[in-house]
Amino acid sequence: MPQRETPTRQRILDAALDLFGARGVDAVSLDEIAREVGVRKQTVLYWFASKDELVDAVLETVAAELVVVIDAAVRSASDDPLERIDRVVRAVFRPAVRRPAMLGLVREMNRLPGPQADRLRLNVQPLVERCVEYFQLEMDKGRLRRADPGLIAALAYATVTGIATEPEALRSVGWQPTAVGLRHLRDELRSFLRAALTP
Amino acid sequence: MPQRETPTRQRILDAALDLFGARGVDAVSLDEIAREVGVRKQTVLYWFASKDELVDAVLETVAAELVVVIDAAVRSASDDPLERIDRVVRAVFRPAVRRPAMLGLVREMNRLPGPQADRLRLNVQPLVERCVEYFQLEMDKGRLRRADPGLIAALAYATVTGIATEPEALRSVGWQPTAVGLRHLRDELRSFLRAALTP
DNA sequence: GGGTATGTCTACCAAATGGTAGACAGATCC
DNA sequence: GGATCTGTCTACCATTTGGTAGACATACCC
């Protein structure tokens, strides 16, 4: 068969990412992914030995992108700790805004059993640890309100992923998952964090 | 057959709640639920006409319990607005602390398509609206820091659903999704809110 | 041009799953 | 005591799904 513009493997990965994110790994069959790509199921199984392997590959992609984007923000130099926190928050939102399915996949990663859940954890862990160390450092310097830095990180993480993964649920409060709505919420989170962490 | 101590229907509902919460609605079969209860699949289908109906019944239970508990806290009389917020936060966490599967079910409610997702939204919406009105009132009185009350509610909501959605991910910071872990996180959230909302 | 590798397809399959039909035992009503 | 109702069971079915075997065509290597 003639090679189409995008290699088949990549197109399968793309379609799987969107479908898995939208409706969950369990609810999407290989047949459906194949149909989306315009190919037969067996072709999917040619590129990925099993569904598990395809799922793994998709989650790997997601974890990698998240880590790259957030890592860049964490490393960004700024003297003001609140400014740095703000940048990380922005970074966390970015992949989700660009590709809505990302949200669903993060949720899936936490729902799936065993090694697939570990994937995100193992990738994100070093980042979170670095954040915690940084919080501790700034608290010691008296530039952030003293608190349990691990719990602060957990809270911030939960808040951001909550916004990211449940944008529909937030409609309850009249919030709209648009770019403008996202900016408002992000800014509110910023001043919230500012009020909460200012010594 | 002799009636056992707990009516079969209730025992099915119980087992389904725990299993659905732990591993997701799609990944749990009727056979597995039946096995857990010590009964045949057909008995499950006798009490619930279809799997969908069982899922609905479970989600209904969850939504109802959440609403009852939170509603009681929202209505609770206390003059200090921060104290009232405290109580609501405790109330939101209570079902999850008592029954860890609740977290997973909140996640499922946001993941499932159509009417099943709406169930949570429709039940929770009036509560959130009441909270928003209350925030506005207290801000007008100058007893809470002035902010967009809708966004504050959205933030708090996102935080809680984030915890619900990502309890495993929070292990990254050494946090455990146990009753003790939930209590710690809840207390941190309370002092967080206190710092952020004190005028 | 012949042989090999690559990529996609058709044709199946075994297992699991949601669901149906109907038998059967015990309790209840008359 | 017989009829009926209730709750559970055995037996079965249709469909879906992940996965295998192997044909076939095109591209590439020599």
Q: For this structure, what is the CATH class of the largest domain in chain A?
A: Mainly Alpha
**Radius of gyration of chain A from the CA trace?**
19 Å
Structural class of chain A: mainly alpha
CATH architectural label of the largest domain in chain A: Orthogonal Bundle
What's the rounded overall pLDDT mean of chain A? 83
Uncertain segments of chain A: none
Q: What is the CATH topology classification name of the largest domain in chain A?
A: Tetracycline Repressor, domain 2
* N/C terminus separation of chain A: 65 Å
Q: Tell me what portion of residues of chain A adopts beta-strand conformation.
A: under 5%
Number of strands of chain A: 0
Number of helices of chain A: 9
| Assigned CATH superfamily of the largest domain in chain A | Tetracycline Repressor, domain 2
Oligomeric status: homodimer
Shape of chain A: elongated
The helicity of chain A comes to over 70%
Largest sheet of chain A: none
How many independent structural domains of chain A? 2
Largest interface: A-B, 54 and 54 residues
* H-E string of chain A: HHHHHHHHH
